[in-house]
Amino acid sequence: MFCPACGNSNVPESLTCSKCGAALPVSPAATPAMAPSSANIKAAPLIAGAPLAGIGDRAIAVVLDLVVVCAAFAVTGMWAAVRWGGVTSNGFQLNGMPALIAIAAVAAFGFLYVWLLEGVLGATLGKFMLNVRVRRTDGSSIGLQQSLVRNLLRVIDGFALYLVGFLIAIFSRLKQRLGDHVAGTVVVQRDTGNLPRAAAAVVWAALIVTGFVGAYRLHPGAGAAVVASTPGTATPVRSQTVPTQTAPVQTTPSQTVPVPAAGDGRVTRAEMGTDRTPDFQIVNPSNEFYPDTAKIVCVWTVEGVDPSVPIKSVWIADDTGSAAPPNYKLAEKSFSGFTEGSFYVSSPNNGWPVGKYHLEIYIGDKLAKELPFSIKPR
């Protein structure tokens, strides 16, 4: 290429003259190679001026919504376990009829949650917090019908931890999973301001706290502890280390494993109060207590009991209204090798429910003593 300023010959790819440094005209033949046409660049699609939401934001929104569903499962599962059985020390069993009832109820709640919120507002709480909205492909708002179709197909899209929906979406021009394709919907990024996001976050947090705190408060044994104190007037047949028992079980007292026969053993003393002395004398003896009583203590003495025969205490709430089902077992503890000792149960965090209770003392598999007591208002 010749320089128009000095006439020097330059190689075709040169941008400036090698002799005088003047700018050289761009060769038309070189234009496609050096400056690709903008027509070859494929612009990202917009839906009514809004860009498509990223797969990552959509996944985070799903996780945030799942936390709400988990909170609902916690409180529903605890309610079902208290109502029909299945309470454990840490919550409730994940099998049996109560668990199936809880799972069915939460599945219905989860579906209504996404269907109604997306159908009415265009977004769940998780989507609101991520500035993500569900729209029709023409950019208009979806209705309950489109939301119904879209969310019914989550059964397929959600297979293998949403792997099916993810694969369909990443190969779709509009990032649509199967439910979106069938319902004619897309997910877009739309900033509606900080106030809606903050409101959604507050509601989201409130639902989670309500769910988990509600589950805790439904647990009749929340905060309770049943302890067998170390006896001091008998020779132990083994080391006496008694763990704290915090496992309410809604059953009537029974033995599921063989235990030695009680023989002629009997309880010769059983007194209840609010504490005991080091030599096992009861403090404030009574069979009536108050909701704020810190602990209820029973001091006992047995005789004629073989050292291998266990002594067991079972604390039962007979009638506490709606606080617990009738004849609800609060906790139990057993040990063997002693003729004197004490058991106590600590108050739940929210205080004792007013009502009727009793303590059962077993020698082996035989009910040897039953002590009724009550919680009354001050």
Describe the structure.
It is a single chain. The protein is α+β, with helices and mostly antiparallel strands. It is 32% helix and 24% strand. It has helices at residues 31-34, 55-84, 97-121, 125-129, 144-152, 154-157, 159-170, 178-183, 194-218, and strands spanning 46-47, 50-51, 87-88, 91-92, 132-136, 185-189, 226-229, 266-273, 275-276, 282-283, 288-289, 295-303, 310-319, 328-336, 340-346, 355-363, 366-375. A five-stranded mixed beta sheet has the order 11-17-16-13-14, with no helix packed on it. Strands 7-15-12-8 form a four-stranded antiparallel beta sheet, with no helix packed on it. The chain has a two-stranded antiparallel sheet with strand order 1-2. A hairpin with an 8-residue loop joins β13 (310-319) and β14 (328-336). α3 crosses α5 (144-152).
Short description, anyone?
The chain is an alpha+beta fold and 378 residues long.
Number of helices: 9
In total, the number of strands is 17
Order of helices and strands: HEEHEEHHEHHHHEHEEEEEEEEEEE
In percent, how much strand structure appears in the residues?
Answer: 15-25%
Radius of gyration: 36 Å
What's the story with the biggest beta sheet?
5 strands, mixed
Question: Which overall shape is indicated by the principal axes computed on the Cα atoms?
Answer: elongated
End-to-end gap: 106 Å
Provide the helix percentage.
25-40%
**How would you describe the oligomerization state of the chains in this entry?**
single chain
| Helix-strand makeup class | alpha+beta
Mean pLDDT: 81
Could you give the order of strands across the largest sheet? 11-17-16-13-14
Spans of at least 5 consecutive residues with low confidence: 28-41, 222-260
